[in-house]
């Protein structure tokens, strides 16, 4: 119940300070909701461009991993801070997921690093946006074992966790402020199994859709371990192939399977 005060005339009204506070909180809530909606809209637009092969590094059809990490609040000083860095430091910080950087440059969206593979379906790139947000696309980390009819998500998890660690260090350098919306999408995987290896009990389930898009997670604190942050995303991927959760975790932390 809201606290009220009595006026000299005996009429009851809410304290004006509480009314102002509620209005401020309401505006802040609407602003935060709008910010997340704008990020989802931006991500949807970027996804459409990637799937249409309108990418900063030449790619062709094939399975792809698509990673986005986007700041909720935009800081106009992030880009000037980047321009004050040594370019080699920027290149080293922008890890590729499943590839080695062979080329890099400024572009309309910010700065991009990428592979130069003979097979463009296996190309990888990491795009840094002027806001400090990151888009990493890999055509090389989703490698299908044709004999066994699937791929090994454990290898994918390892690469994504490692890249996220690198990005977090770079955001600290750029003074990017949390929270960030983090998302992962797999494309081109319909009919694939999620494989563990001959030493493990494997599900016979397969992905029933071409695009697997787990719900986004929010990075609220850079101190949060990347494997802990990404666990709900990885669990969702394994769910799609018949598993209850990612088998890569022990006591809440990611471990390398033997």
Tell me what the structure shows.
Helices cover 33% and strands 21% of the residues. It is an alpha+beta fold and 258 residues long. It has one domain. Strands 3, 4, 5, 6, 7, 9, 11 and 12 form an 8-stranded antiparallel sheet that branches. Strands 1-2 form a two-stranded antiparallel ribbon. A two-stranded parallel sheet has the order 8-10. Strand 1 and strand 2 form a beta hairpin. It is globular and about 55 Å long.
Provide a count of the helices. 5
Termini separation: 58 Å
| Classification by helices and strands | alpha+beta
In terms of DSSP E residues, the strand content is 15-25%
What is the number of strand segments? Answer: 14
Q: What is the approximate shape?
A: globular
Radius of gyration: 22 Å
Question: Portion of residues in helices?
Answer: 25-40%
Order of helices and strands, N to C? EEHEHHEEEEEHEEEEHEE
Mean pLDDT: 90
Domain unit count: 1
Low confidence ranges: 1-13
Q: What profile does the largest beta sheet have?
A: 8 strands, antiparallel
């Amino acid at each position: 119940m809201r606290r009220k005060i009595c006026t000299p005339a005996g009429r009851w009204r809410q304290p004006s300070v509480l009314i102002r506070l509620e209005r401020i909180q309401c505006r802040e809530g609407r602003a935060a909701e709008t910010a997340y909606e704008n990020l989802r809209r931006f991500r949807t637009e970027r996804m459409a461009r990637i799937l249409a092969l309108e990418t900063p590094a030449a790619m062709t059809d094939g399975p792809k991993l698509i990673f986005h990490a986007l700041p909720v609040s935009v800081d106009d000083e992030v880009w000037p801070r980047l321009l004050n860095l040594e370019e080699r430091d920027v290149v080293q910080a922008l890890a590729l997921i499943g590839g080695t950087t062979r080329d890099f440059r400024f572009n309309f969206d910010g700065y991009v690093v990428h592979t130069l593979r003979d097979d463009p379906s296996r190309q990888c790139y990491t795009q840094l946006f002027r806001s400090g947000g990151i888009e990493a696309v890999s055509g090389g980390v989703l490698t299908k074992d044709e004999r066994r009819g699937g791929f090994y998500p454990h290898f994918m998890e390892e690469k994504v966790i490692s890249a996220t660690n690198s990005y977090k260090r770079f955001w600290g350098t750029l003074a990017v402020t949390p929270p960030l919306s983090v998302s992962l999408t797999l494309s081109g995987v319909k009919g694939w199994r999620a494989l563990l290896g001959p030493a493990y009990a494997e599900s016979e389930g397969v992905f029933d859709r071409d695009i697997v898009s787990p719900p986004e997670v929010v990075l609220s604190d850079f101190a949060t371990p990347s494997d802990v942050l990404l666990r709900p995303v990885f669990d969702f991927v394994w769910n799609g192939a018949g598993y209850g959760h990612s088998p890569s975790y022990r006591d809440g932390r990611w471990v390398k399977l033997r």
